[in-house]
Amino acid sequence: MTQTALPDPATLNAIPRMGQGVYWQDISVGQQWRTFRRTITEADLVGFINVTGMVEAIFIDAAFESGAINGRPVPGALTYTMIEGFILQSMIQGTGLAMLELHQKILGPVLVGDSVQALVEVTAIRPTSKSNRAVVTSQITVYNQRQEVVMEYTATRLLAGRP
Prior knowledge:
Blueprint: H1 9-14, E1 32-34, E2 38-39, H2 42-52, H3 57-60, H4 76-92, E3 96-106, E4 115-127, E5 133-143, E6 149-160
Antiparallel strand pairs: 1-4, 2-4, 3-6, 4-5, 5-6
């Protein structure tokens, strides 16, 4: 088997990176994306509880009788982090520098077996005076498989500019 030699570093760096996020110059106010949809499983809930220590009875006891929600509710933080994972893997991978501010409203329950996805809309872009960066604000609307809005949040991030 012959082995192909890699191009020199300058040529290699000029090849687009798979999964690279967007630079602030390549987006505009009003631009929208929708994430993939993902079904939240019992394994997701258990893993999240184990990592975070959120051992509240409504999350750890499938037969908990005093809860206000029927079914297996999941923490809002789990829903949020799943959506942020989609955003990281697509919009801000390699270009997101910092989460600066977050305002979140949980509007409805998410249960094990629900499928969630989000609509992301850029609402503001403010270039900084330093290092080819911009502060980008987005409105994220999370909804379930029945098109019910279960969460809304505004995220303000620092994004890198084109090299």
